[in-house]
Here is the input.
Amino acid sequence: MLTAEFDVFYRKRTGLLASRILTLPSTFGGSLPLENLNSDSNRGFELVIGHKRTLDNQLYYSIKGNISYARAKHEHIERAESSSQYDNWRNNNNNRWKNRYWGYKAIGQFQSYEEIAQSPVQDGQGNLTLMPGDIKYQDYNGDNIIENTDVQVIGRGSKPEIMYGLDFFAQWKGIDLSIFMQGAANSNTYLNNQMATAFHNGESSINAFTDRWHREDIYDPNSRWIAGKYPATYANGKDNNKKTSSFWLQNSSYLRLKELQIGYTIPINILKKTGLEKLRLFVSGYNLLTFTKIDLLDPESTSSDGRYYPQQKTISLGFNLTL
Here is the structure.
C-alpha cells in the first residue's frame, strides 16, 4: 500500500577551464591559455512517495508525489586578489552559492516631493530628476547616497531549486480519472525591456502600464498625482526606474494543473451488439489552472521580456476504439 524512495546526491567537479589571473606586459601580444583551475559542487535530494489500493473490488486508486531539492556552489573561481573589503564581498564568489540575483532593494515608491527631498540622493543630481511614483531604493551602507555600493543580494536566480509533482489516478466501474500536477519553487524571474519599460525601444506598451502614477489632468503639470502600481510613463523609461532592483524581480514559484482527464468505458455487454471489443470516451484538459505570484509572464516562460511562444491551454474530446 505504501512505497517510498529517497535519494541523496553530492557531486564535486574539479579542473573546470579558466584563464590564470596574471598581469602581462602589452608586448606579450596575447592572452594566457585556458587551464583546469576552477571547481564547483552540487548537492540535493529527491523523495518519492506512492500509495495505491483497491476497495470492494470496484474502486481502484493510486497516488504518487515527488519533491526534489538541488543547489549548486562555487568552490574555487580563479580571480585576482580583492582590492578592498567591499570588492571581496561583492565580487569574490569563492565558496559561495550559485543562483543569486544582485541589485538594489526597492523599498517602495516616492509618495511626494517632500519625501524625495528628505531621502538619500539616488540620481546623482540631488534628487532633482525624481518625481512621485519613482522607485525608492534602500541606502544599504547608510552613507545617504544610493550608488553601486548599495547593491546587494535581492533574491534567487532563475533556476528553480525545488521541483515537485503529484500524479493521481482513480477508476470506478467504467469511469476513470487522472490528474497530474507539477510545480517549482525557490526561483525568480527578472522583468526587463518591454515588461519593465512602457514604450521600450519605441514599441507598443503592454496594457499593465495603464495602472501607473499620473497627473489627475494629464494636460496640467500642476494637477495632483494619482497613485498607480508602476512609475509614471517616460519616453523609453527613466534611468532611476530602470536600475536593476527587486521592484522588477518576481517570485516565479508555481503550482500548475498540468493535465486532467476523465474517461468512461462502455460496458462490454452493450458493445457485444456492435461487434466492438472496447470503446472509451474521454475529455482531457492541459494547463488548466496555475497558482503563482508572478505577474505579466508565465512562470515557465523561457524569456523575461515576453518574447516566447505562450503556454497553450487546451481541452480535447476523443475516444479509444478497439475492434
